[in-house]
Amino acid sequence: MTMPTMRPHDQYEPPTDTDTDVAVVGNGPIGAVLSVLLAQRGLRVTVLERRPRPYTLPRATSFDGETARLLAATGIGDRIGGITEPATGYQWHTAAGRTLLDIAFSPRGRYGWPDANTMHQPALEELLAARAASLPGITVLRGHRVVDITERDERVTLTVETDDGADRAVVARWVVGCDGANSFVREHLDVPMTDLGFSYEWLLCDVELREPREFTPTNVQICDPARPTTLVGSGPGHRRWEFMRLPGESSAELNREETAWRLLKPFGVTPETARLLRSTTYIFRATWADAWRSGRVLLAGDAAHLMPPFAGQGMCSGIRDAANLAWKLDLTLRGLADASVLDTYAEERGQHVKESILSSVQLGRVICVTDPAAAAERDATVLAGRRGRTGPGAPDAARPLSAGLLRTPGGGEGSPAGAVVPQARVSAGGGTGLFDEVVGRGFVLLTTDDPRPALGEDRWSFLAALDTHVVRLSPPGPAGPAGTAGSTADTGDDGDTRTGLTDVIDTDGRYLAYLAEHDATALLVRPDYHVFGAASGPEDTAALVDELRDRLAAAVPAGGTRRTA
Fold this sequence. Notes:
Helices cover 30% and strands 26% of the residues. It has 565 residues and is of the alpha+beta class. The longest helix is centred in the middle third of the chain and has 25 residues, at 343-367.
């Protein structure tokens, strides 16, 4: 059976009535990730950043394994190891040093990357900037402050003020505000915010160690009512301490360099052992935007949500925003999905972030206790609950999506729809490595058999238009199902596996076990690694593909006729 070959990314012709497909306001890590993901898909991206130069101080200090996988999708995966150190674990201690919480991190976790990766944020941003500079579709304009946004006739005009006082206009199809907690885009749209009213002030101390030191575990929360304190890694040679402001203590008193050194000294951190890169107070908040989209303007990252730091999910949540939004903007701009698909961005990410914020608040309510009696009661309760436990626990799997662009109604009880698909080693074409590197990224139809007879030419054309990787799994053994381990059947003439069926050996046995766990023979996985849905048998696989096409609300005929949005 010969299947038609379609290359939507190669065939995309940008409209001539705009300067750019997507204008990204803000070039922090969220804006940078989004712009790279879009440009890799062949789209034109203009990044408008008010700062004339990169910000050289860290904000976030770590990211989890799921986020590492998303960052690797920007093309920097082979360099992440050079700017990070895997964290060994996370513990909460009482004032007396007893363990309230103990989580061990694996150097190769559920998603193919270390469970927790500590980093010096400026180094990450340098990698993303270098990657952006290598892509012809990205234009980064520094010293450009957006002062007005006007939407008309399926275009958005941004009025921009440059550092030299000049004004210019940038016309885009879509605009994404990644401009941080004090977002101009959000304020301009007059988006209301839900604020949970949970906030505390902390002194943040970033240090560069003069000599290597080992900290075991890497991350510790000291739940001492005399001064709740956080100790975390922040990449090679760097660490962060945070000290909570106590009742009756003034901000000015806490926010002094001599105070920082005094609080750091009990941990062996002195001017002789470390350089203080920064000491400053900050107030965390727990808040989210009540709307993430207004017409052709969307919000992402801190512009859409802020959370306490205790789960380490602030930047991770923003990068999930970017990964969720990038492929949906791409399909919308290419006419492969109706613009209404972007409503699922807010639906999915909004609910996901609310759950993360509520979880972070719950952790904070346990940590930020300064009353000795209340702390003693907390310690007794938690320690009683830990009785009988041996050894540390493992981190939870990534939080699944609970609504949105998923097989309805969530695929039924026990369905993996919405979950983040694990990543393990596979073999194909004579090579072995992590699935994303061996097979590629984008939509993936993962099967245990040949789905082509059941799918037919029309469905295959639809999958090809989405650049879908269709993968047939086989267990470890001397040969793949086509007779040669890792053979690729019916690929395009340039070897592009997205237009044919690729035979892959499940080297670690993880994928076949995952399918069996869910009584499935096929999984349809989205470009952000969330499972769209599972199927059992050829007919159900065909129905699964049909449902994705219906949900995208775009008829993609075999001839590939498209419109742009």
